[in-house]
Amino acid sequence: MLKRDSPSEALRRPDRLEDPGPVQIADTALRSEDELEREAEERRRRRAEALAAMAGETSEFQRPFAPRAEAMILLENVTKVYPGDVVGLRDVTLQIDKGEWVFLVGPSGSGKSTFIKLLLKEIDATSGNVQVGGRSLRTLKRSQVPKLRRNIGCVFQDFKLLPTRTVYENVAYALEVQGQRQEVIKRKVPEIIGLVGLADKIDKLPHELSGGQQQRVSIARAFVNHPPLLICDEPTGNLDPETSIGIMQLLYRINRAGTTVLMATHDREMVDKMRRRVIALEEGRVARDDRRGGYVEEDEA
Amino acid sequence: METRWKFFVLEALKSLRGNFATTVAAVVTVLVVMFIAGIGIALGSYVYNYSNKVRDDVTIRAYLKDSATDKQIAEIQRTITETPGVQPDSLQFISKDDAILRLQEQLGKDSELLQLTLGNPLPASFEFKAVDPDQTATVAKAVAGLPGLDPPRAGLPNPDYGAGKADRVLKTAGTITLVLLGMGVVLAIAAVLLIGNTIRLSIFARRREVEVQKLVGATNWFVRLPFMIEGMICGVAGAIGAAVLLAVSYQTLLADRVESAMSGSGSPNAIAFPLLVVLLILAGLGIGALGSGLTMRRFLQV
């Protein structure tokens, strides 16, 4: 069992999760091949270290499947068939516990997006039972869907920020939809923006920010409610490796604070280094579910 | 709750400013539709009032024989007053002298012609109106054939209520009202389609925004309300613009002619301008709110 810190405390703690440091890109032309090679090697090493630092701490044994009280996500024999007999998921049964960090891997079309959409009740399962936070989504009324989504933070590959609103307004919107009072919003929003390291960009519009900064904004928006579940759909898919590390560290800290993180990703290095639970989907089925897995099955690697 | 509304209105204003081109398009659409609708309403109300006035003015005249005795005249008067459906205070006795005086007045300068006649050829008459103009014929029939009345002759019915003239006016007015109504229906359909389309374009341009709003847990109403307020603002702006345009074009093009043609208290009026403006603004509000609210629906299925 991980020791849980209070959310803000865990986010603030200046431990080994600092940024890998500034990267020199200037005057590459003046350097020798050797030097560049060495620098690239150095960067790779630091990235690997940073990822390894986020690796799972306890070795857990594979538990047989049995519903437990602390399930965050529970799928029982879930099948999703789209119109035209396109199958999204086939008879998927799995459980993700509260506080877990789970990678969801698999090629395009393997069902990752279907999985995520089911959890947000953007679509309904054709058969089977989906539970999030102990609530069955099958019986959840349409009018209750907004409440469900307020308890799930979402981070996407394309950030999904509101383009005409500033960083502050984007984060504030997540609170405004719940009818939070302005005093609360004015207190919480700058705090969370500070925590993701964008205090000086608070009045900028999304297009004035870099990709990594935009993703930080979307993480701030996802986390400002302190939701028990954070779903990330390829959060680093559009970012360069250096920037990705920063984003991953941010998410890692959020996970340490007790939030369940489910991350769909194609980033092999990240998955291999962090050694967390990996659920691999293939053609809509769970092909593999390792407590501390790699991106591909170990034998193949 | 008050801050809620402030938030929604601010949201609406923000996106109006952010989508300036669509805002202008929507306002101009509403303006054009409202302008044409305003002309239609003014014209229609004028025709309606005019035909009502013609109907109300239909007077029944019962002409008396010159030889009618006082007793017969009293009997006729009693019959008229006791006939159901007669406006009691509308009954008027026109003596032969009254009749010739009236004719003199109507002829004006040409009244010299009357000198050519021997004596007074005009009969005395009772004039009265039916309470319900549509009952005129029935009421007239009740009086017909009483002793002392001039017997009707071909082309000269007695009592006479100008059946032909009134009918023609009413029929024409009816046709005009029908045509205007038809135009109004066509215009309303065109307006709804046009405005709906403008709104759809503006929402379509922002469907990603709506998607994001729904993903962070906004309820449908939370997304919809600012859009509806936006629609209402556009609608009202268009309506006010149309009212201004109507007022200006009336003043510059029609005012002089209309005033000279319609001086005098008895002439029928078109709808009062302030009322017309209120109507247009209400219509603008309704179209804006409904148009955007309904168009939103399909984009909210996320």
Explain how this protein is built.
The complex is a heterodimer of chains A (301) and B (302). Chain A has 301 residues and is an alpha/beta fold. Chain A has a domain at 31-61 and 69-151 and 227-290: 3-Layer(aba) Sandwich (Rossmann fold). Helix content of chain A is 34%, strand content 21%. A six-stranded mixed β-sheet of chain A has the order 6-7-8-3-9-10, sandwiched between helices. Chain A has a four-stranded antiparallel β-sheet with strand order 2-1-4-5. In chain A, a hairpin with a 3-residue loop joins β1 and β2 (86-97). Chain A is globular. By secondary structure, chain B is mainly alpha-helical. Chain B has two domains: 2-54 and 167-299, no CATH class; 59-161, 2-Layer Sandwich (Alpha-Beta Plaits), CATH 3.30.70. Helices cover 69% and strands 4% of the residues of chain B. Chain B is built from nine helices and three strands, in the order ααβαβαβααααα. Chain B has helices at residues 2-18, 20-57, 70-82, 96-107, 136-143, 163-205, 207-215, 220-261, 273-299, and strands spanning 60-63, 92-94, 125-128. In chain B, strands 1-3-2 form a three-stranded antiparallel β-sheet. The longest helix of chain B has 43 residues, at 163-205. The two termini of chain B are 27 Å apart. Chain A binds chain B through residues 120, 122, 143, 146-150, 154, 160-164, 173-174, 176-179, 181-182, 221, and chain B through 3-4, 7, 14-15, 18, 208-209, 211-219, 222, 302.
Short précis:
Chain A has helices spanning 7-12, 33-53, 112-119, 145-150, 167-176, 182-195, 211-223, 241-256, 268-274; strands spanning 71-82, 86-97, 101-105, 127-132, 135-136, 152-156, 229-233, 260-264, 277-282, 285-290.
